[in-house]
Specification:
Structural class: mainly alpha
Number of helices: 16
CATH class: Mainly Alpha
Strand content: under 5%
Distance between the termini: 36 Å
Largest sheet: none
Order of helices and strands: HHHHHHHHHHHHHHHH
Helix content: 55-70%
Number of strands: 0
Number of domains: 1
Radius of gyration: 21 Å
CATH architecture: Orthogonal Bundle
């Protein structure tokens, strides 16, 4: 493969440093979730992350790649971390092990390793586990250890049986409880405030840009606001869709994956809007109360097409991608 001629620039960011900043941004929400759900969540988190490292090492060994070079670049750890954040904290240990191998082997290494995967590995594993083991993947506990549905799941079930949202007011958590994370769900569905702070930290460090989070959250809230205005007794408002569910985890930490999202700002806006649209449609009318993983994977599949139509301008070429004719330009 020939290299494009100079000049070249380098951002100064390595894979290891990028992964480290993302994990640092995730740490407050993770620690809070581990504190809320206790030892079951701690053990599942450790098992999932360590299993991702093991799966990565096995895959690298089989492919003949240097284990020392790739194993601790942070990508396998972050994949396990995000997967653990999306699992029920009380899920059995083997869910974490199986999910880790699905994420690393099927979601990442089958495509050639880091930088080559089309789909977000953690979301590949989550969707595969959800379809294969729906009972284990939909059994939730609250912070006090009581089993129960997530707020989105509770709303879907009750409204599907003909109940109105006003009749559910006493059984739904308050906005403050949803914001602080005092609800049932995965660790990635709990503290919206800490996840938001982590996302803002990534924006501040220029690890991600604003395009995907803003377009994704904006589209989701716009649809939620319209539908709630049309039928407030059936469709929950914007605050529920923002705070109850994996909206903030998905918008800042999953959909913004540099490998599986578009490269141009316009493409990222389209990608984020598509994610927001699909999340709302799946939450509202499909068979699952949370649609983040499905939405991200579907838009991952469209990323090459989005990049094709919204390709960034290349130095030395015009907006159509044709080389500039400097001689003719100078003659003008």
């Amino acid at each position: 493969m020939s290299m494009i001629s100079s000049p070249h620039t380098h951002s100064g960011k390595s894979v290891q440093l990028t992964m480290l900043w993302v994990m640092l941004a995730l740490a407050p929400a993770t620690v809070f979730g581990l504190y809320l759900f206790g030892w079951p969540a701690i053990s599942l988190f450790l098992i999932t992350v360590l299993s991702c490292l093991l799966a990565e090492a096995i895959a690298l060994k089989i492919m003949g790649k240097p284990i020392g070079k790739y194993l601790f670049d942070g990508s396998a750890i972050l994949t396990g971390w995000l997967l653990a954040m999306s699992l029920p904290p009380s899920a059995p240990w083997w869910i974490g092990v199986l999910g880790a191998f699905l994420a690393i082997i099927v979601g990442k290494q089958v495509f050639g390793g880091i930088g080559q995967n089309l789909f977000n590995p953690a979301m590949v594993a989550r969707v595969a586990l959800l379809i294969s083991f729906p009972l284990e993947m939909t059994t939730w506990v609250t912070a006090d250890g009581v089993s129960g549905a997530t707020p989105l799941g509770h709303i879907r079930t009750e409204t599907g049986q003909g109940h109105t949202l006003s009749s559910l007011a006493d059984s739904l958590p308050s906005v403050s409880d949803m914001g602080l994370g005092m609800i049932g769900g995965s660790m990635g569905e709990t503290s919206a405030v800490l996840l938001l702070l982590g996302g803002l930290f990534l924006l501040w460090k220029h690890i991600i840009t604003w395009h995907i989070p803003v377009s994704m959250i904006g589209t989701l809230l716009l649809l939620a606001g319209i539908m709630h205005a049309i039928s407030p007794e059936v469709y929950p408002g914007m605050e529920v869709h923002l705070l109850a569910g994996a909206t903030l985890l998905g918008a800042f930490f999953i959909a913004t994956d540099l490998v599986t999202s578009p490269v141009s700002p316009t493409g990222q806006l389209v990608f984020g809007a598509g994610c927001g649209l699909l999340v709302y449609v799946i939450r509202t009318w499909a068979g699952y109360p949370e649609g983040m993983a499905f939405a991200v994977l579907l838009m991952n599949a469209l990323t090459p097409l989005i990049d094709h139509y919204f390709r960034p301008r290349i130095y030395g070429r015009d907006r159509k991608g044709e080389p500039l004719n400097y001689a003719s330009e100078e003659g003008k």
